[in-house]
Design a protein that fits this description.
seven-stranded mixed sheet, alpha+beta
Length: 207
């Protein structure tokens, strides 16, 4: 059975982690989570996570290495460390609220059961922070999926326009898409003719 991939961000700043609270219409309402969502058809993990951060919080962050993987039924949850940029101002565009929580306080918040291992590891300080990962580390080389991606983009933009603060989020999303198009064109020019690579560029799981 092919698993559905969910990507989420671990965003740290000064010993605190950014978490958001699910709304009443979501699955497991009221629980706290690491911001992210389901990867759509034609997306890489990193493209999906950047999109989700724009849609949920109105912020555009570079996506670093994968630091944790968990499974819950048909879902595979992939957690990536994202480098915080000073001066950004997140907003709860599609969640009830967000908080910067001390890592040691994370166990006091109610997370989905699948997040329990990551919460415990962060609280215990077992996940060391990677510093200075290069910008653009999430560039993915893959097969063309322009038709399904174009449809998904239209649907995303239509939903974002109806959000509070949606204009700013839409402009950020368009900037991401322009950057990804330029990176994709550059990477395709450098690929050997016989190359056919797809999937996620993350290193194999160690856990």
């Amino acid at each position: 059975m092919q698993r559905l991939v969910v990507v989420a961000a671990v965003i740290e700043r000064g010993g605190r982690v950014l978490v958001s609270q699910r709304g009443p219409s979501s699955g497991q309402p009221g629980r706290w989570e690491f911001p992210g969502g389901k990867r759509e058809q034609g997306e890489s993990d990193r493209t999906a996570l950047r999109r989700e951060l724009v849609e949920e919080l109105g912020i555009d962050l570079d996506v670093g290495p994968r630091i944790w993987t968990a499974r819950a039924g048909p879902l595979e949850l992939r957690f990536y460390r994202c480098h915080w940029v000073a001066g950004l101002r997140p907003r709860p565009l599609s969640s009830v609220q967000f908080r910067w929580v001390l890592t040691t306080d994370l166990p006091n918040y109610e997370f989905p059961p699948a997040d329990a291992g990551l919460v415990a590891a962060l609280a215990a300080g077992r996940l060391t922070r990677h510093r200075g990962h290069p910008r653009g580390a999430g560039t993915i080389q893959g097969r063309s999926t322009e038709v399904p991606m174009a449809k998904a983009k239209r649907e995303r933009r239509a939903s974002i326009r109806n959000m509070q603060g949606g204009d700013d989020a839409l402009r950020a999303l368009e900037q991401i898409e322009r950057q990804e198009t330029a990176e994709r064109e550059t990477s395709q020019e450098s690929l050997p003719r016989a190359s056919d690579s797809n999937g996620d560029a993350s290193p194999p799981d160690k856990d």
